[in-house]
Structure formats: structure tokens, C-alpha cells
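Q: What would this chain look like folded?
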Amino acid sequence: MPDNIRAWLILGNAWVRASDYDLLVDRFGEPGDIIAQSSSALRNTGIASAVAGAIANSDEALIQSELDWLQHDRHHILTVADADYPELLRRIDEPPVLLYINGNPDVLDLPSLAIVGSRNPTNGGARNAHDFAQHLGSAGFCIVSGLAQGIDAAAHHGALDGGAATIAFLGNGIDRIYPAVNHDLARAIATHGALVSEFPLGVHPQRRHFPQRNRLISGISLGTIVIEAARRSGSLITARLAGEQGREVFALPGSIHNPLARGCHQLIRQGAKLVETAEDIVSELAPLAAHVLQNAVESTAKRTSSENDDEEYQALVKFLSHDPIHVDELVRQSGLTIDEVSSMLLILELEGKVEKLAGGHYSVLS
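A: My prediction, written as C-alpha cells:
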């Protein structure tokens, strides 16, 4: 297994695209066989010379740093060949060959909604993002955004305040937090959801990275909600990507005197669904969410069929009752890690055995 992980890290650091990976697998087989090839043999498959050279001459110091990073119990990678790879992401053009995850990878299977918008919203826009995220989170959706200041941060906070899972996709290596002002928020997201990046460790945020990141925000989500965006806005790129990926696009209207409402009004004119309340979105997406959730239940059941009887699982279950208990208290009482507890609680919730309550509390369902 370590050799296989190393091979995948080499492919990820070489910026192998999904289409490149298909060519390489067809020719050579498993990742371990691919990285054993010469640069010329790799080029003969049709992949770019730079990619072939990066595979054949990998940065061993960087690969070792990533292997060291993976020793933390809440650090994970998912490869495009893994059964656990998010199905909606798998369907987009050129899905990432490798995802770096800090947190609970199981949340990537939940029915998700993206909330994006201005980095400098009005007070009302930030409040709408928070409240919509809180309400939609309580309705069972995982809230996805990009950890930016403004609407992104407000949406993540809203999900956390409602005790819901939230995912932040990063435009840099997962070992870096940008903007730095959101460091504490990122820590909370990693505890109650996941930070996710396709960029190798050490990669700095760059302007060109954010459209690339945005395709993942929209790609993993059933729909994208735009709250306050100017006519020339990265949020409109995310909305466009969502439409191209076959996802729903929602926009909140605003005052005609608010420049940050013009992007939303433009989206509505182009066919985005006008929404005034979170319930508008819930009613629109409930059938799709139910389908995704059922797939998640079946997938999780397959992965964990042998876990329900193990000692760790029983060590958690015995502390659950009809009285609400906070996830941090479950960690303390069970002696398990926060990642183990979060994964087990998600399984129990998907199986209809526990209920997630406000503020990170859980109780047993009757």
C-alpha cells in the first residue's frame, strides 16, 4: 500500500489529468507500473512532455513530505480510481486524479449545495449567506464553498452554527490556509467537515488556480447558489461551470441600486432560478438529494459492513442515547479520535439510527 500511495502522489505532483491517466493505464497498467517507465515511453502514449518528465523524474523530497503529511489520522488522499471518489466529481470534465483531504472524507458523499458570492458583501448579503447555509444544512445538505472572505466565509459559518457538515475547496496546497484571516474557520471546517484540494503540498494561491478550484465547488454540488455578485465576478464563473456540468443554478435578487445584485440579476435573466427563501431550494432539489443520499448510504454500508461489530464502533454507540450529546463529549468519553467519531456518526445518521441536532449534538432516534 505505501508503494501504491507513493505512485499516486508522483502522478498527482506531475499534474496528470484524468484523460492522461486513462492513456497511461491502458498502456502500462497500475500506477506503480506507470512510474517505472522512462520519460520517452511515457511520451509515446501521447501525454505532454512536461508531464512525462515530471513522472520519470519526481521530486522525492516533496513526495516524502506528502507521505509524512499522510501520517496524521485526519489527513487523507482519494484517487480517481477509488470506489470512495465522489461520484458527482467523477462525472465532470477532467476530474482531479488526486484529492488531498484534511478532515472527514465521508462528507464528500453527502448531497451538497454550493454557496458563493462577493468577497466584500453587504451586511445583508453576508447574513443571507449565513442563514441560507444554516437552514439548508439543517435540511440535510452539506454546504460547499471556497473559504474566501465574505459570502464564502459566511456560508461556512452558517453551516457550522447549524451543526451541519461543510466542505471548503482550496486554490492552493492543503498545508496552506488562504486567506490567513480564516485560519480558525479552516480548523473548524476540518473538524466538522473537510478541507479539500487538488493542489500538491506547498503550492501557493495564484489567481489562475481559483477558476480551477471553482469547477470542483460546482462539480460536487447538486446546485450552486449565488448571493451578491458583480457583473464581472468569479462567482459567475462558478455559476457558468455549474450550468455546463448540468447542475442547478440559483440566484438571490437584490436592489436595483446595489452593484452587487447585478451579477445575480444577470444570472436570472440567463435562466438561473430566482430564490427568496431556503425552502425554494429544498423543494427544488429534494428528489435529487434523496437519490444522492441513498447512493451514499449504500456505498457507506458496503465500506463499513464489517465495522458495525468492531470494538471501536461499540465504544461509541454505548455513549449515545436519546439525550443530546456533543460530538466533542463523545470523543472524550469514547477515547476515539474526532475523525473516527465523525465517520461513525455519519454512518449512523445515514442508516437512520441517530439524529444530528443543532450545535454539533447527536441523539439516538426512536
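Residues 305-364 form a domain with the Arc Repressor Mutant, subunit A fold (CATH 1.10.10.10).
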